[in-house]
Amino acid sequence: MLAALCVSVTVCGCVRQNVPVQFDSSDPLALNPEIQWAVVTEPYVACYQNADYASAVLTHFRKGEILQVIGEKTVRIDDAKEIWFAFSDGWMPASSVAVYANKMRAKNAVRQMGVK
Predict the structure, then answer these.
(1) pTM over 0.85
(2) Which end of the chain lies in a sparser environment, N or C, as judged by fewer CB atoms within 10 Å?
(3) Does the pLDDT of residue 24 top 60, yes or no?
């Protein structure tokens, strides 16, 4: 009896359902392979004018905000190298964000964080 149940569940799971795939075209950049998206991972992060902690702070972002990455730079801080990402509002260190290949993955990461 148990074997028959396992076989029927397996067979039902393998049956292809003709459900059309629907793409959300409201955000054309969301799946563009040339664009990366960053999710702020710290509770509150400063966004600097340049890729430097001594630079002027232009704005702040909160954990879970999604931003389009528009550039990347490696800078020397003391004896170490640090990666910074550029956004439309300025620069943030890589240690404050997680970068994803598309916006859908970034949104999923925010959901997993339990933010918003």
Answers:
(1) no
(2) N
(3) no
